[in-house]
Amino acid sequence: MSTHTRVRTRGSSQAGRAVALVADVLAFVIGLWILLYLLEANQGNALVDLVHDVASWLAAWSYDLFTFSREWVQVVIGYGIAAVAYLLVGHAVAGWLYRR
């Protein structure tokens, strides 16, 4: 195996790890908001507000995809779809980069 091939493989591996890490962090923030919501965290708290704002931005495309009569179901499904999508797409891209 030539040096050039090893360097390219290492770079692809590092890129794959970076993409997987970003996907994990995005899903974690959304999951954290779901947990804080279900535990009825103080919405006046700055950290809770920050997590909610970031999760709302990340899940803006999925939150109203389906509507449910119970608010907690709306939050779990609406935000959960985004978290799962970030994990699936992020890890699929990371896997593709690993194979390059």
Question: Key terms for this structure?
Answer:
elongated; 100 residues; mainly alpha
Secondary-structure-based class equals: mainly alpha
> What is the domain tally?
1
Note the overall shape.
elongated
User: What low-confidence regions span 5 or more consecutive residues with pLDDT below 50?
Assistant: none
Count of helical regions: 3
Helix percent reads over 70%
Largest sheet: none
The radius of gyration computed from the alpha-carbon positions, rounded to a whole number of angstroms, is 17 Å
Strand content: under 5%
Separation, N- and C-terminal Cα atoms:
15 Å
Question: What is the count of β-strands?
Answer: 0
What is the average of the pLDDT values? Answer: 91
Question: N-to-C SSE series?
Answer: HHH
Structural write-up:
The longest helix has about 35 residues, at about 5-40. The chain has 3 helices and no strands. The model has no long low-confidence stretch (mean pLDDT about 90). It is mostly helical and about 100 residues long. Helix content is about 80%, strand content about 0%. The chain has helices at about 5-40, 45-60, 70-100. The protein has one domain.
Summarize the structure in short.
The chain has 100 residues and is mainly alpha-helical. It contains three helices and no strands. The longest helix is centred in the first third of the chain and has 36 residues, at 3-38.
Helix-strand blueprint:
Blueprint: H1 3-38, H2 46-58, H3 71-99
